[in-house]
Amino acid sequence: MKAVIELNLTLQISRRLGAVTLLASGLVHLKEYFDGYAELPVIGLLFLLNFLGAVVLAVVLLLPTERILHRYGTILVTLSAIAGIGMSLMSLVMLAIAERQPVFGFMEPGFHPGMILLARITEVLTVVLLGAFLITLLVRHRRRINGRGTHVETA
């Protein structure tokens, strides 16, 4: 029983903190958007879309989505965690590339090193936390299949 409680606690903490770090990453992109990136045709739009995507995914991860949508909620939460990881990884990769060569005609000049560091930290934390959430979800699912666990809601 203690293992089930620990799994549920890990699910709750990693999911909620992952949503918060994802939202923080989106807010970094929004700040940069308003601090000049809006003037860049493609890059500005991508920064704005990053913020909007982060908000939508974070809301799904923060709300008790499974209680609202039942079985479909579990699927939506899982897909949102995967999307959050993908979005964070893509942001990290694109930043690394833009620091070395132009992307859509833009090369990161490094004018805001603090914001770049904050973006990297929030994106890495998002990958780690939502990754931990998905791994814990998989462990719980396998325990259920093997008959060693009882049903516990993730929301």
Automatic annotation (TrEMBL):
TM spans (from-to): 40-63, 75-97, 117-139
Domain of life of the source: Bacteria
Keywords assigned: Membrane, Transmembrane, Transmembrane helix
Protein name: Sodium:proton antiporter
Organism field: Gulosibacter molinativorax
